[in-house]
Amino acid sequence: MELVFLGTSSAIPTSHRNHSSIALKAFGEIFLFDCGEGTQLQMSKAKISPMKINNIFITHFHGDHILGLPGIIQSMAFRGRKNPLHIFGPKGLVEMVNIIRNFGYFSLTFEIYMHEIEDGIIIEAENYRISCSKMNHTVLNFAYSIYEKRRPKFIKEKAIALGINPGPDFGKLQRGIAVKVGDNIIHPEQVLGEERKGRKIVYSGDTTPSDQMLEFAKDADLLVHESTFEGKYGDEAGEMGHSTSVQAAEIAKKANVKRLILTHVSTRYKKSDILETEAREIFENSTVAEDFMQIEVER
Amino acid sequence: MELVFLGTSSAIPTSHRNHSSIALKAFGEIFLFDCGEGTQLQMSKAKISPMKINNIFITHFHGDHILGLPGIIQSMAFRGRKNPLHIFGPKGLVEMVNIIRNFGYFSLTFEIYMHEIEDGIIIEAENYRISCSKMNHTVLNFAYSIYEKRRPKFIKEKAIALGINPGPDFGKLQRGIAVKVGDNIIHPEQVLGEERKGRKIVYSGDTTPSDQMLEFAKDADLLVHESTFEGKYGDEAGEMGHSTSVQAAEIAKKANVKRLILTHVSTRYKKSDILETEAREIFENSTVAEDFMQIEVER
């Protein structure tokens, strides 16, 4: 599982920080979280093809998180995309995508499925689960969590002892499917070890710090949390529905995450040292994201 | 009069060429022609504030010429702009701006005046005149011309001979206003020399070459003409409503312009040498635009 930061600025872009967008390479797919203006160019610089993206997750409908959508969608159409595209986002998404469909002349060559989300699981796939949870911002905002579903270890010796021959039946049992051996049915739990914890990544979107965030980020391997300002601007951040680096670090610490990446950095910070230093005083494994930074989340 | 090329690519952006947009610094203002995705960032790199733009001219409603508008407009609102913004473009502009108004959550702090244009003069100011003319593209596309209105030379000796004292009356006559000296009324034409030709700049938008373009670009000091492909792809260019470098150069030559700038370059050209070389064989004073290129149009 690898995250590629395509944009790490807050409302206004700079030469070094484009608007919010993060690509996640995992499970043989590329998932896109938020899509600020210029994301298609950032993707091309990062050598990520928009054609490989099947799922886009929008945290909220502020321009710096969505204005790159028309460009990505028109670019997909220009290249003759046929595969459907799924877009997940807060209530209002259907209207927003209809706006995008009518923005300028172009022919859509593929289907767009729009998913207006509410708290809970939004994708339950064989290998992963994606959930969302409402956070506190000036407009409806969702944080997303991506959880890797790891299969329990397959205990070969037990299978052989039960009379199963190495081959397709091993694979079925590994994938949780019962098999028949003579007149006996062998169930997966007879040959599988204990449940294994998969990797978990959480992305906050724009939010003030909250108990909800704390709960949602619990034990994550990686928490990507917004950090618009440094600690001393806590009041200002709160009024604008944002967090400081100190607040993000406190969340990371209390939620017992392994690593914290700070993003959505205000233009006032030409260098992000202050944010990183402050965060590390509270939570050591903190890093401020930069555009095109790649973060591998290992087991 | 200075042009700053903010984007010079065709449909797909590259690391070196962003989507179409050109800023014109003239008459104490900044005029924006087309506004592809990422224009606000290109402007910030070129140190041009969106707050200084009062007039935006759109050639046509293809994404690569318009998708930067929501970002520019929201950015102006974010900075608390109060001055009205005028947007000129083909029929459909009102609907397009209404789409932009509803794209994501933001509060518009200023008025947007939308001008759906037809062939002819669209701004007649004291110092300049802006006109437009329909060209041939796959969708309705207008070329724009910017003409500097120069006042005739003020002949000081004639004024003094007519009994006018140096001072405010000189200025009035220079600006074309009659003045009273004793019982006599002195008219501007009594003290002004011959009409002087002002500078003229023409921007094509996306178009195939045409007699209409030839007529519209006549005697321009600078013609900015699209040149998506090199000469051998004339048929392909024609089918897609575009021009080649050779065709653009032929227009420049026949229209008797002083200088030709080629823009809207296909991604297939990593280097633009071919386009420039071909154009120069027909029209010597040809240059392929690059992002952030500045062109001063001198008298």
UniProtKB/TrEMBL annotation, chains A, B:
- The answer to whether the entry has keyword rRNA processing is no
Q: So where does Zn(2+) 1 get bound?
A: H60, H62, H137, D206
Enzyme class, spelled out = hydrolase
- Residues recorded as binding Zn(2+) 2, renumbered to this chain, are D64, H65, D206, H264
Q: How is the cofactor bound?
A: Binds 2 Zn(2+) ions.
Q: Where is the active site?
A: D64
Give the stretches traversing the membrane: none
Annotated family:
Belongs to the RNase Z family.
Query: What is the name attached to this protein's record?
Result: Ribonuclease Z
